Amino acid sequence: MHKWNSWVALGDSFTEGMSDLAADGVTYLGWADRLAALMARRRPGFQYANLALRGKMLQEIIDEQVPRAIEARPDLVTICGGGNDLVVPGGDVDALAAQFEQAVLALRAAVPDVLIITGPDPQAMPVVRRVRGKVAIYNGHLRAIADRHGVRMLDLWAMDVLRNQRAWCDDRLHFSSEGHRRIALRAAEVLDIAVDGDWREPWPDDAPLPWISLRRNDLEWTWVHLVPWVRRQLRGESMGDGLAPKRPDLTPLQADHHC
User: Fold this and answer.
1) Contact indicator for 65, 251 with CB cutoff of 8 Å
2) What is the Cα–Cα distance from 164 to 33, expressed in whole angstroms?
3) How remote is the C-alpha of 170 from its chain's centroid?
4) pLDDT value of position 87
């Protein structure tokens, strides 16, 4: 058993679950759904909502998701945001953190428990690792926010297992199913929820790819993932345009997923 009867998850594609495909091959599962299923197994009648949506900038999360979470009055809210802001050129990391802190203050005043989530270390990911310094500064702010306001924190940067490329999917921006599974286990640990698996389990050893295969993979990634992303940014478009959250309301969850 755990103490929470309800949970609302806020954020962007990470919390929506990309690219951890569910059994239907269409929708995404992700760390939050996996953790929610585990929590439902521990607490009969547990309710869960996931308002996260791919492509959302931090201000959009604050404007569109935070008020709905406050209105729902759950026992627990998790919030992860700012990652999409950090990969866009320019921007003030300090100002971004100040926005995030105001959201935490609003949630903290209305919800018994809040958990915030840092960004992972992108060192293993080509191109994205160029913003590694910005992510590190932002994470420093988030740790200070957690300390100042007494909220829990899921520190993805501290998870060494996420520095392995097998924790990431082919687009090098989102986690693989195994990456999401390990994050769910770590989140449960932060919330003091007992689990059977160990997120620290070492990855199996694989022979390194030859140089030519690595270059071929980089070229394929550039055309399949990077170029479309740049085009969307230039047009002011988002991957989430026209989409709606997958679980917009607090409803009882059937524990039919696996963590």
Assistant:
1) no
2) 23
3) 17
4) 82
Exposed, middle or buried: residue 253 (CB in 10 Å: 0-12, 13-18, 19+)?
Answer: buried
Higher pLDDT, 230 or 95: 95
Reply yes or no on whether the pLDDT at 37 is more than 70. Answer: yes
Question: How far is C-alpha 198 from the geometric centre of its chain's CA atoms?
Answer: 19
Sheet containing strand 6-10, strands side by side: 152-154, 113-117, 76-79, 6-10, 47-50, 247-252
Q: Measuring CA to CA, how many Å separate 202 from each of 24, 103, 118, 194?
A: 29, 36, 22, 20
Tokens 């050893």, located at residue = 205
Query: What are 136-172's pLDDT values in tens digits?
Result: 999 999 999 999 999 999 999 999 999 988 898 877 7
- As a whole number of Å, the CA-based R_g of the chain is 18
Model confidence, pTM? 0.88
Over 60: is that where the pLDDT of 193 sits? yes
Give the C-alpha distances (Å, rounded to integers) separating 171 from 16, 63, 80, 243: 16, 28, 20, 20
Per-residue tokens: 28: 């995404």
Alpha carbons 167 and 138: distance in angstroms, whole number: 22
CATH class of this structure's domain 6-193: alpha beta
